[in-house]
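batch job 7 of whatever, protein = Cytochrome P450
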Amino acid sequence: MSFTEYHLRTIIKCKQHGLHPHTVQAQAQAHAKENHRLAIEQRAKTMENQTPALPSFNTTTLFISTLQMIDIGYPSTPFNICLFLFILAVLLIFVAGCTPPGRRKTNPVLLPPGPKPWQLIGNLPEMLKNRPVFRWIHKLMEEMKREILCIRIGNVHIVAVSSPELGRGFLKKQDAVFSSRPKTMASDLTSSGYLSTALVPLGEQWKKMRRVVTSEVLSRARHCWMHDKRVEEADHLVRYVFNQCAKGVSGLDLVNVCVAAQHYCMNVIRKMILGRRFFGEGMEDGGPGDEEEEHVEALFTILGNEESYGFNEEACLINVRIRQGRDREKEANDLLDVLIRLKDADGGPLLSEDEIKAQIVNVYNTLPKLGVNQFLSYSQELMIATVYNPSNAIEWALAEMLNRPDTFQQATEEHDGVVGKDRWVQESDISQLNYVKACAWEAFRLHPIALFNVPHVSVSHTTVAGCFIPKGSHVLLSRPGLGRNPKVWDEPLKFKPERHLKDGSKVVLAEPDLRMLSFSIGRRGCIGVNLGSTMTTMLLARLLQGFTWSMPPNVESIELIESVGDLFLATHSLALGRPRLAPSLYPDAQT
């Protein structure tokens, strides 16, 4: 029997047999002193050859102190019992907060620098005071002149990194240590209970779904199989923008570049997965209908939230298709057919209905978001989807190019030299469109859609760049911090596509050295790099080849201002578009 249990039983017997409570209190104090003496001796033995550690607390001593705070001579009223339990709970939480994982033993290596945390709650008060949190984190790093920062929320350490060298230390040198994901409410919801790929912690489910995605959904063979569907949507993009231009006087009208870009990306994904462009009928000019706009908005608000209309519509279609596919065999026509037809070794369905639904959401999110995890929920909390990453980059690229007309001229000359004016640019031309790709890549660098990458969680204690990283730490690489790092980039805040063309080599939308972060690297890097880069380049190439762009009337320059709470343009860019190729290449308006 433990001393504490013995002590409590003695008190109860005292009250039952009418003994004086001060006798019990004296016994408790004597036992407390003896226990305290033994604890000191034990600590002296264990700390003999170690660096002095932070003060620790003996649970038994704290428990006895709690008993002594209550007058045991009082009757056992509900109030006294509740008071006792409350104080006990507070002390137990205090002990847990004072001895976080990784700090129970003294470690001579220090944590990364950061603001001093409060007991129990860490830096939560500062986060609540400084919104949006991601701007506060970057401001702290600038003020402290550090490229690595540690803040604490509860007993979880959040490590932010803005240096390519440090980033490689986490994601290349120690990729195996930082390959897991955190378990949060947001990731649980968006992955339908950790059934997809991007947000799933290391384990058998992640291995299974990654194997399915890499071999069946986003493989090179599947990419080629879906080529015609992507080309069809590129043609629809031209028709939609052409109709927008034709609405105004003299064939000119303002085009909302953001809407056009998102419309194209969303249609590509819907066509690839569901085999259809719209949920409803769409608009006469080829634009999205109310259902499509609501669907995009629902995905943007929270992907995987089944209470939103957009996903309910999609889930309904998926349910019908699963039943049809399981009832009878048919030739695969889209990615949903591919997932339904997968079989295990026994000939049964490889994926459950829930896994198929979760994976469909994950394909929408080929570049999973969470620029910040749940603990940094005041900054960007949404998924970086294939819809938003390319469309955001191209909207920023066109806005920057409007302020630099010479970039339009160079892009036009490249198009005319590689493709000519008698046909539309195709995916087979992308390898030769270096300047166009440089414009897109520069937009990714200067204007990333997410503030941070998806969090990486350390599966064990480790050291990076001389800093101790405890097990369970959440590591966030700052996309603006990497892409705008003055130690890496000359004039980092200027839009200069030519910086990517200096050595004369082909421009590839990838950065293995982490000088910027778009598709990430390592075993948790984006699986859909090929799809994402193809969609981005084709979107910009068609817009630049097919139309001449200029500023709206009475506008001298485009205001390149970020929103306060994220990295999107504060005001969506509107531009005047004019068809620049032969009329016979454009589809008829309003068809």
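notes: Residues 298 and 309 are 7 Å apart (CA to CA).
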